[in-house]
């Protein structure tokens, strides 16, 4: 519990609206968008980097633990306090300023609390967008802290590839501010220090401002739902699409039958393009796009896509069983409805894993056989970014299932899934949601000691306060 003089000092730093102690008002920050929940000592809502600096310096002196929180849309409990009531939440939601777009540099300077949708609304009037496309609406600071990639990684890459600068506050006695916001694109005067804070869940320091690379919004696009002849055919489809379309190839998203059916059940207004409404065992949403308007004499993308699919069908042992073309927005509506659809089936246990691209479907096929034998009542509802090796391996347990009465069940399930992911397939237990308490056990288990020593040394020299509830040591 806070002392009266601590509360007074915090209000002095943050102002009345920046300090939240009321139980009802704290609830939105204590409960994650997915399934996490905890109890916050208080919620700090600074408005700028200087307030963050003063806050961290004060909390270091008073030994108050802070959990940085951005959009709170993650899967690994990294942005919510634990249940002790001893951790405070540092919310960046008021740090939502957006500076003017630098058209010549194709860059924009934003506060860490700016939502992705708000950023793209501002950029749209200039025909630009930030090319990290997600089903959720996170804040930019959290996207940097987890190095998100999203559905169009194949063409645009992840946060690391679209980040020009950061401003960070260290959790030390001075609340040291590190300013790496110079937006120049080439600078080899030393290590690229800003990248040390990407994908680390705020453990090394609090990201307060970001300078982003932005790109022209596509003027043409065409999408298709591809039905492979089997799991083993997906890799061939991916390689064929890349060779046929090159830099115009934008997305290659895999969707399992269970996940798609959950989306249709949860959102009845979705357009079902499959004959008789029967969803295939596996579907790929592929997209191609161009940054320019159609030029006279140029073949439209829809025609190019049809020709490309015809050429794939003509191959010996063609990997394509069927294809459905139509409105792109209808197809993407299915993809973006998957998360909510799956979440409504029962108790969700989500895994954000990644592999070499050629191993994604091998893992999927292996799990389709192995998981029902080990956990008969658990339903696989997977989907993911096959084009970059990422997979949202979602498992759903019926809410009245006896599995949920066992305190050991989730750990046993996670241990087994991650052992297959890492040990059998050489994959990662965290593709783009970082570590957090949900994955701490597996960071400790699978990270080489030499890497853990390096991370611990960097953290020790960067801050003296426990920042967040992830431990890189």
Describe this structure in words.
The protein is α+β, with helices and mostly antiparallel strands. 34% of the residues lie in helices and 19% in strands. It has 14 helices and 18 strands. It has helices at 4-14, 23-30, 49-62, 116-124, 140-146, 153-156, 234-245, 257-266, 301-313, 328-343, 360-374, 409-424, 436-446, 449-462; strands at residues 19-20, 43-44, 66-69, 88-91, 107-111, 128-129, 163-169, 177-180, 206-213, 215-216, 220-228, 249-256, 282-290, 320-325, 347-354, 379-380, 383-384, 390-397. The strands form five sheets. Strands 14-11-13-12-17 form a five-stranded antiparallel β-sheet, sandwiched between helices. A four-stranded mixed β-sheet has the order 1-2-4-3. Helix 8 packs across helix 10 (328-343). The model has no long low-confidence stretch (mean pLDDT 91).
């Amino acid at each position: 519990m806070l002392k009266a003089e601590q509360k007074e000092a915090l209000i002095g730093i943050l102002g009345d609206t920046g300090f939240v102690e009321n139980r009802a008002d704290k609830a939105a920050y204590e409960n994650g968008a997915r399934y996490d929940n905890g109890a916050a000592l208080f919620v700090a809502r600074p408005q700028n980097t200087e307030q963050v600096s003063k806050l961290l310096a004060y909390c270091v002196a008073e030994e108050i633990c802070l959990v940085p929180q951005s959009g709170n849309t993650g899967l690994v409990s990294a942005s919510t306090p634990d249940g002790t009531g001893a951790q405070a939440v540092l919310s960046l939601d008021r740090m939502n300023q957006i500076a003017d777009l630098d058209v010549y540099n194709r860059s924009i300077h934003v506060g860490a609390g700016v939502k992705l949708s708000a950023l793209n609304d501002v950029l749209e009037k200039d025909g630009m967008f930030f090319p990290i496309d997600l089903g959720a609406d996170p804040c930019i600071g959290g996207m940097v802290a987890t190095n998100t990639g999203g559905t169009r990684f194949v063409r645009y890459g992840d946060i690391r590839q679209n980040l020009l600068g950061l401003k960070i506050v260290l959790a030390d006695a001075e609340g040291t501010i590190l300013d790496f916001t110079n937006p120049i694109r080439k600078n080899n005067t030393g290590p690229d220090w800003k990248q040390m804070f990407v994908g680390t869940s705020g453990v090394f320091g609090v990201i307060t401002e970001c300078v982003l690379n932005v790109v022209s919004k596509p003027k043409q696009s065409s999408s298709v739902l591809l039905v492979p002849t089997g799991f083993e055919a997906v890799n061939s489809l991916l390689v064929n699409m890349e060779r046929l379309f090159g830099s115009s190839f934008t997305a290659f998203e895999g969707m399992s039958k269970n996940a798609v059916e959950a989306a249709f059940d949860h959102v009845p207004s979705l357009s079902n393009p499959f004959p008789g409404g029967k969803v295939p065992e596996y579907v790929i949403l592929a997209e191609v796009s161009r940054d320019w308007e159609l030029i006279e004499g140029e073949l439209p993308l829809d025609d190019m896509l049809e020709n490309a699919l015809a050429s794939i069908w003509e191959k010996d042992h063609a990997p394509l069983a069927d294809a459905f073309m139509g409105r792109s927005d209808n197809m993407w509506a299915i993809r973006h409805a998957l998360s909510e659809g799956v979440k409504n089936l029962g108790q969700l246990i989500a895994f954000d894993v990644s592999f070499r691209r050629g191993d994604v479907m091998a893992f999927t096929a292996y799990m389709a056989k192995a998981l029902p034998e080990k956990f008969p009542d658990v339903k696989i509802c997977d989907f993911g970014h096959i084009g970059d090796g990422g997979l949202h391996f979602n498992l759903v347990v019926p809410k009245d299932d006896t599995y949920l009465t066992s305190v050991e069940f989730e750990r046993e399930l996670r241990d087994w899934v991650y052992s297959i992911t890492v040990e059998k397939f050489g994959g990662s237990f965290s593709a783009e949601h970082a570590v957090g308490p949900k994955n701490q056990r597996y960071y400790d288990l699978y990270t080489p000691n030499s890497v853990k020593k390096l991370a611990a040394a960097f953290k020790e020299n960067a801050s003296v306060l426990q920042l967040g509830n992830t431990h890189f040591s």
